[in-house]
């Protein structure tokens, strides 16, 4: 049975995977509920946000 998940649930799943912390029960539930395209889309957005935040931090710290 496929259950529709919210984008927020997908964001939470991708965020936990970025940190490398994931419970086995959560992983099994997510495999059944979340579509791979959602994970890829949220993952790409997460990578761009992370790289942008790092670039902004470096620009702020390193003097002109």
Topology readout:
Elements: H1 7-19, H2 24-33, H3 36-61
Helix pairs in contact: 1-3
| Major β-sheet profile | none
Instruction: Report the portion of residues in β strands.
Output: under 5%
Instruction: State the distance separating the first and last CA atoms.
Output: 56 Å
**Inertia-based shape:** elongated
Number of strands: 0
What is the element string, with H for helices and E for strands? HHH
On the 0 to 100 scale, the average pLDDT is 84
- How much helical structure, as a percent, in the residues? over 70%
Unreliable residue stretches:
none
* Oligomer state of the chains in this structure: single chain
Total domain modules:
1
Structural class by sheet pairing and helices? mainly alpha
Query: How many helix segments?
Result: 3
Radius of gyration: 15 Å
Describe this structure in words.
This protein has 64 residues and is mostly helical. The protein has one domain. It is 77% helix and 0% strand. It is built from three helices and no strands. It has helices at 7-19, 24-33, 36-61. The longest helix has 26 residues, at 36-61. It is elongated.
């Amino acid at each position: 049975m496929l259950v529709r998940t919210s984008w927020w649930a997908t964001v939470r799943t991708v965020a936990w995977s970025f940190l490398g912390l994931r419970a086995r029960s959560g992983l099994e539930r997510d495999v059944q509920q979340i579509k791979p395209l959602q994970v890829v889309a949220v993952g790409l957005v997460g990578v761009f946000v992370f790289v942008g935040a790092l670039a902004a931090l470096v620009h702020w710290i390193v003097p002109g």
